[in-house]
Amino acid sequence: MKLTVLVDNNSIIDDYLLAEPGLSFFIEEGEEKILFDLGYSEIFLQNALKLGIDLSKCSTIAISHGHTDHTGGLEAFIKLLWEKGEQKESSSPRLILHPDIIGDRGREKKKILGIFAGRRALEKTFRVQESAEPVWITEKLVYLGEIERQFPFEGKKKVKDDRGNERMVDYLREDTALAYVAPEGLVIITGCSHSGICNIVEHARRVCQQDRIIDIIGGLHLQKPSRYQLEGTREYIAGLGLEKFHACHCTDLESKIELADVMEITEVGVGMQVEY
Fold this sequence. Notes:
By secondary structure, the chain is of the alpha/beta class. It has helices at 43-50, 68-71, 74-84, 99-102, 104-108, 110-113, 119-125, 197-208, 227-238, 253-260; strands at residues 2-7, 24-29, 32-36, 60-62, 94-97, 127-130, 135-136, 141-143, 157-160, 166-169, 177-182, 185-190, 213-219, 246-248, 273-275. It has a 7-stranded mixed beta sheet. β7 (135-136) and β8 form a beta hairpin. The radius of gyration is 18 Å and the shape is globular.
């Protein structure tokens, strides 16, 4: 498997590639070409062009969750496919996403969730597959579906409003990730990890029936986390024995410094490519 970073908060390759607060990965696995998330705007298309990647040939688009920094480029991608004539029913790419994203909840909160294209436009362009369950994209790459929450320190944050009432925030049922079964172990590919990176890893282990984790690449949603969450995550990551750790996107500097104390972190940015 080969993964190319098309969108991240940082750009580390000196080819004048564009960065923004968002995420998009292009994945090649066997004959399959997969786009995982589409960033905040259309810059994933510009970066792909500079890198010599033809995104109109993607066979699968997988969405980690509905927020705009991961789905904002969807309309530009739809336009690209129609211009290229790749929207024919026999060859149109598959779009995999959780039912909440374009269901009733998505329509009511589309400005928050980011899916501005309606169901009709999506179904005219893609073979839409809504699933809360795992979906195997290839024999080795899986869309993990809805993530089970088991760690008390992540994936379900509570805050108090002005009246002192508690409400749940940052609890996105649709948040998911990908996992790749490499010969040496699992590679976890995340979008934002709203469901919690530790929860995601444990879920991937169950789905793939593999215990060894060799790399995590993607956002960890550690932005001013509580001490409770950060220490719990740090302890868990330390116990994984990772070969590599590519924390990016929604992972702040303080969290990276804390995690780097127990595991060497590799810098990530637009244009970076990794192979497994």
